[in-house]
Specification:
Blueprint: H1 3-6, H2 22-30, H3 33-45, E1 50-51, H4 52-58, H5 64-76, E2 80-85, E3 91-96, H6 98-134
Antiparallel strand pairs: 1-3, 2-3
Helix pairs in contact: 3-6
């Protein structure tokens, strides 16, 4: 076996700074609060399934439409499995795939960072608002 055949093939990686890179679209999808909440709820239930209504109940503030759009995107990306029981009305169940479960760790770290630093961010926002209110309006013609 040559060294060429012994190596695993390189996987294509994205380039976040390339405007045409699909990585940007993926980060847009996984970076939303609803995606983070849905992944967390499904990870807590894993490997069990969670019904749509239960997901909505456990995600205060999410509309039925927004949850549906979020779950549809996660299923399309291979992060969530969707199962429908043909009842009237249909019962729809969701669970994380292995790929989806691998996303829970990084999202949990981002959530933990946000919770730890939210007070600092709030203070910075308050100072910024106070500074903007104290600054004289600039003449756009200058």
């Amino acid at each position: 076996m040559t060294s060429r055949t012994a190596r695993a093939p390189k996987r294509a990686r994205g380039d976040l700074f390339d405007p045409q890179c699909p990585t940007r679209r993926l980060l847009d999808r996984i970076g939303t609060k609803w995606t983070s909440m849905a992944i967390k709820v499904l990870a807590e239930a894993s490997p069990e399934e969670v019904r749509f209504a239960e997901l909505q109940r456990r995600m205060p503030g999410v509309s039925q439409k927004m949850l549906s759009v979020t779950l549809r995107g996660l299923a399309r990306d291979g992060l969530v499995d969707r199962r429908v029981e043909p009842t009237v009305p249909p019962r729809v169940y969701y669970r994380l795939t292995g790929l989806g479960l691998s996303l829970e760790g990084p999202l949990a770290m981002v959530r933990a960072w946000a919770e730890e630093h939210m007070a600092e961010i709030d203070r910075a926002n308050q100072l910024s608002q106070e500074h903007a209110a104290d600054s004289p309006a600039r003449d756009p013609r200058r």
